[in-house]
Specification:
Rossmann fold, about 700 residues, alpha/beta, binds iron/sulfur cluster, 6-stranded mixed β-barrel, Dimethylsulfoxide Reductase, domain 2, Barwin-like endoglucanases, 3 domains, single chain
Length: about 700
């Protein structure tokens, strides 16, 4: 595409000599993985739109990525390597050459690797700034494994649910997203689908128009909840109690699928026994949801076919998040809803793909025996050299290499993260598009290319197609792809050329190699390709669970072996106002502002305009008790920190719950901090994940 004078693009022709169209992929951490069409004129991208021919994208992009050209050509884009000249955090840099930057990085890293502390005092820190196979995780991993750096456990988002699901299903909960519109009963469970998964949402709306009932279980009345047939307000962190009571109702009303239970599940008797204790009345006390509502929800979901639970991340970010997902994912097996295409439960489609497995693609074989792993959620502690649960930390961190992430804004216990980033004995390198909060602490700041400027290939965690990202324009300024930067570092470290001496196209071929029918050429010529899956696609219709028993494990020996409850159960929040010993009274959740993608886009003027300033949604009763009037400034605080927000007194939250959307750049707020100055680094019960929404705070007025 793009080189010929007359380009055929899903029936559209572009035959002006100086215009070409390129197919790209939205790189962001979002389940929709949209296919984008970029129009380029004389080397400049002049138009970007959703691919009309892509069956999931359906020709539209979200409000954020519609502005991707503004982001790419933004005046604040980093275009040259920079070296820090002022104190850490002040953001003062001077321009240097790539040669000088690379030389300094290699010199410092080698010096650290050869010191008594050894290479494990070097830590890579990256997450989902881009989800492409190459720019997210390829040569970078090989480089860090090759030099013997500490490993990073990437727990900030999804590991609680991954492990919770895995214990029950032996993999992720997957339903065919292309069949959603056929569903008759849909539960958005801890999922703000209309905002965070908008291309699935349009399918839910279609189902709704065809008579489906759409229900949203969320403590906050989100846009998804507003547009659903019913909003069920749940007390944060108590979803497992609701799921247990729903199964209680199903068994009591004899609405279970005996055939499915008999053939494809393990531990039915123990599950029956467990849920017999979970009457809707008991669950009402914990969840705040009336027992009658629980009964009705359970019966509606049990009696409709196909029935889908779209379970997402909101409910995972609590102390009991892993167990909540494990418990909810038992429901489809009790009801037999897995039998229907589109039905069952949906968490992520990522594991359906058979790209080259990351072990071999990222060369895990290079990892030196005994290398330690550091949990990214506990960056605050790691930078302070504190081991978990009193265990020794090992060699202190002396170098931090950050890419595809903005930890100064997105990590919990922000004050402590910043304290660590300020350390003068820490050598920090940041690869970025912009001078983020994290970039302000870099010793060397390197300009990275955006998705319009580099190659990549993508799976998706919300649909089932493989997509190629062809560069549309040349790298702006002196920016370079992550792959190119790590390639150069690996070369200068004299690592074996076979691990780095390959082009991005070669890497794409390698990533695609287990899928012989999907090649770089085909993706280039024909566009996105569907995975070859059985039609209809209902992966658990006849069991095929990848658990040790091959069944859906209500009883899990693996959980028992870990010393955990082998049955689904309810784990209360770490910071539980019902425990009777909590210091702060209000449960605060901080999901992302719709116009931001985590902290990405938070620096664009238009997105800031859409979002206004940090707000706090609070129920009228809680506001009255504190003399808080709407649209006045409040202080939100706990022992970890405090931030200011504009109070929005409204009944979109129940009493006892407050919502403050994230994730602002600290330096773009009035008080220089964001919600993460209050969030904690305690981990989830399974998967050692982040507990951003398990957070008790107090709120007070700010005297004028
Ligand atoms: N616009 C936009 N889209 C995004 C993102 C973004 O930043 N902006 N981020 C992307 C990423 S990285 C991710 S991981 C996904 C996340 O996708 P979602 O999981 O949909 O994201 P959240 O908005 O974090 O959480 C969903 C909902 O869970 C609710 N919630 C909080 N606690 C609980 C609870 O205890 N129980 C229940 N039932 N609900 C609870 C929140 O109020 C929120 O409305 O979205 C992706 N898409
Ligand atoms: N309070 C609170 N905190 C949260 C959340 C929340 O809901 N509430 N959400 C959590 C979740 S779900 C997640 S996933 C994390 C996300 O946290 P992060 O993964 O850190 O996501 P972003 O904030 O989007 O930052 C990604 C950065 O990568 C950069 N980037 C993008 N592409 C490239 C590239 O090709 N090369 C390089 N070098 N850089 C690139 C972007 O410019 C951006 O600054 O945040 C978590 N933090
Ligand atoms: S962020 Fe999500 S919805 Fe928006 S363009 Fe990217 S993939 Fe599509
Ligand atoms: Mo995430």
């Amino acid at each position: 595409m793009g080189t010929s004078l007359s380009v055929k693009l899903h029936g559209e022709h572009t035959n002006l000599t100086n215009l070409k169209t390129i197919r790209a992929v939205c790189p962001h951490d979002c389940p929709d993985t949209c296919s984008m069409i970029i129009t380029v004129k004389e080397g400049k991208a002049v138009d970007l739109r959703g691919d009309k021919g892509h069956p999931f994208t359906q020709g539209f992009l979200c409000q954020k990525v519609n502005r991707y050209l503004d982001r790419t050509y933004h005046k604040d884009r980093l275009l040259y390597p920079l070296r820090r000249v002022g104190p850490k955090g002040t953001g003062q840099f001077e321009r240097i050459s790539w040669e000088a930057a690379l030389k300094e990085i290699v010199f410092r890293l080698k010096e650290i690797a050869n010191s008594v502390d050894g290479p494990q005092s070097i830590l890579p820190f990256s997450y989902g700034g881009t989800m492409g196979k190459l720019q997210e995780a390829s040569i970078d991993r090989r480089f860090f494994h090759g030099i013997g750096a500490s490993l990073l456990d990437r727990t900030i988002c999804a590991t609680a649910g991954t492990v919770g699901c895995d214990m029950t299903l032996g993999g992720r909960a997957v339903a065919d997203p292309f069949m959603t519109e056929n569903c008759r009963h849909i539960i958005n469970w801890g999922s703000n689908t209309a905002v965070t998964n908008s291309h699935l949402w349009v399918r839910m709306v279609k189902a709704q128009k065809q008579g489906a009932r759409v229900v949203t279980i969320d403590p906050y009345k989100t846009p998804t909840a507003c547009r659903s047939d019913e909003w069920i307000a749940i007390r944060p962190g108590t979803d497992a109690a609701l799921a247990l009571a729903m199964m209680h109702v199903v068994f009591r009303e004899q609405l279970e699928d005996r055939d499915y239970l008999g053939q494809y599940t393990l531990g039915e008797d123990q599950l029956r026994q467990r849920v017999s204790e979970w009457t809707p009345e008991r669950a009402q006390k914990i969840t705040g949801i009336p027992a009658d509502t629980i009964r009705r929800l359970s019966m509606d979901h049990a009696q409709a076919r196909p029935a889908l639970i779209r379970l997402n991340y909101g409910l995972q970010r609590h102390g009991g998040g892993g167990m909540a997902v494990r418990t909810i994912t038992c429901i489809p097996a009790v009801l037999g809803t897995w039998k229907d295409p589109g039905g069952g439960a949906m968490l992520s489609t990522s594991k359906v793909y058979s790209f080259k497995d990351s072990e071999s693609f990222c060369r895990h074989d290079l990892i030196r025996a005994g290398t330690r792993t550091i949990n990214m959620t506990r960056l605050a502690e790691a930078l302070a050299g504190e081991g978990d649960n009193g265990r020794p930390f090992g060699p202190p961190l002396k170098a931090l290499m950050v890419y595809n992430s903005n930890p100064a804004a997105i990590c919990p216990n922000q004050a402590k993260v910043i304290e660590g980033l300020k350390r003068d004995d820490l050598f920090t390198v940041v690869l970025e598009h912009f001078q983020t909060d994290t970039a302000d602490y870099a010793d060397i700041l390197l300009p990275a290319t955006t998705q319009l400027e580099h190659w990549d290939v993508h799976s998706s965690y919300g649909h089932l197609m493989v997509q190629l990202n062809e560069p549309a324009i040349a790298p702006l300024g002196e920016s370079r792809p992550n792959t190119a930067i790590f390639r150069e570092l690996a070369k200068r470290f004299e690592l074996s050329p076979e691990i780095w001496d390959n082009t991005d196209q070669e890497l794409i071929r390698e990533a695609l190699s287990p899928m012989p029918n999907i090649t770089l050429e085909k993706l280039l010529e024909e566009g996105p390709k569907s995975l070859e899956l059985p039609k209809p696609f209902a992966p658990f219709a006849q069991g095929h669970f990848e658990t040790p028993s091959g069944k859906c494990e209500f009883y899990s020996q693996r959980m028992a072996d870990l010393g955990l409850d082998p049955l689904p159960g309810y784990t209360p929040p770490h910071e539980d106002p019902q425990s009777g010993n909590s210091t702060y009274p209000l449960q605060m959740i901080s999901p992302p502002e719709p116009a931001f993608l985590n902290s990405s886009f938070a620096n664009l003027e238009a997105n800031q305009r859409d979002s206004g300033q940090p707000k706090l949604r609070i129920h009228p009763l809680d506001a009255k008790f504190r003399d808080i009037a709407s649209l006045t400034k409040v202080r939100v605080f706990n022992d970890r920190g405090s931030f200011q927000a504009l109070a929005m007194v409204e009944e979109t939250v129940p009493p006892g719950v407050v919502v403050s959307h994230g994730v602002w750049w600290n330096k773009r707020t009035n008080d220089g901090v964001n919600v993460n100055c209050t969030t904690s680094t305690r981990l989830t019960d399974l998967g050692a994940g982040a507990t951003f929404f398990d957070n008790l705070v107090q709120v007070e007025t700010i005297p004028l």
